[in-house]
Amino acid sequence: MLLATIGLWALNLTMTRYILTHGFQPLAYATVRYGLAALVFLTLTIVVERSLAVVRSDVPVIVGAAAAVWLNQIGFVYALRHTEASVIGLVLGATPIFAALFGLALGTEHVSGRFWLGALASFAGVGLVAVGAGGRIGGDLGGILFGILTAATWAAYSVLIAPLMSRYSASRISALVLGLAWIGIALTGVRQTGSQDYGLGWHVWALLAAATLGPLVLTNMMWYRVLHRIGPARATLATNIQPFVAAVFALVLLSESMGAIQVAGGLCIAAGILVARRRTPAAALPPGE
Predict the structure, then answer these.
(1) What is the pLDDT of residues 139-151, one digit of tens each?
(2) Which end of the chain is more exposed for a tag (fewer CB within 10 A), N or C?
(3) Cβ neighbours around 243 below 10 Å, total
(4) Is 228 exposed, middle or buried (0-12, 13-18, 19+ CB in 10 A)?
(5) pLDDT of 82-126, one tens digit each?
(6) Whole-angstrom Cα distance, residue 95 to residue 115?
(7) 100 and 276 in contact (C-beta within 8 Å)?
(8) Euclidean distance between CA atoms 162 and 165, whole angstroms
(9) Which residues have C-beta within 8 Å of that of residue 64, sequence separation ≥ 6?
């Protein structure tokens, strides 16, 4: 289940990049995809648990998590609209470092000098990936900035929902957070959604359905089963390979290219994560899923 989950998450970048370069506007795509996912989780939770109730003190945390997902999806779709999926896959490898930084700010993480060394290496790697993009703010480099937003906001979401996971099921958290996030996405993308040409062909719609039911719905269920069976420390350590699997998928399936500087940047990000790795109490889905 762990390997299948990582594979689907990695493949999602390639599928989304293809969809966004074959007619779907970024915010229209996010609106449709998250609307479908929210509907699935709402239906599943009501049928199985017959309740969406949470204690009042958890409401601000859920709203904050939804805001993080809203910003995450804006970053995710525009990152993949402007930059190749292989490059964004490498940038998203820095997500665990952002998660530790947010945990440090909230007082839920205690880091050592080893962590700061790893963080420095990872951010240097992101810098190398950006340099390898050629400095085109309107294109690759602009997409990398959106990729950094994607990594940072998903890290914030992961830290925010960690305490909730001991009190609520994954489907209930997903139903509430994705539902609220969808409202923000829909309002932000109302113009694109209204002007979108939906006659894009069956292959685009098939990929959208796959990107919704696979990386958003199915992996959510599998991921929390994995956490229960082998523990978050082992599971999250294995997810460190996801950025590189994503890059391989994009290079092979989309015939993308990657320069030596960007490869070096990806290796720096990976090295930084290995140096700074830590035990984590809980983990969420990875960026943009």
Answers:
(1) 467 788 898 898 8
(2) N
(3) 28
(4) exposed
(5) 888 878 877 777 777 777 777 777 766 666 667 677 777 777 776
(6) 14
(7) yes
(8) 6
(9) 160
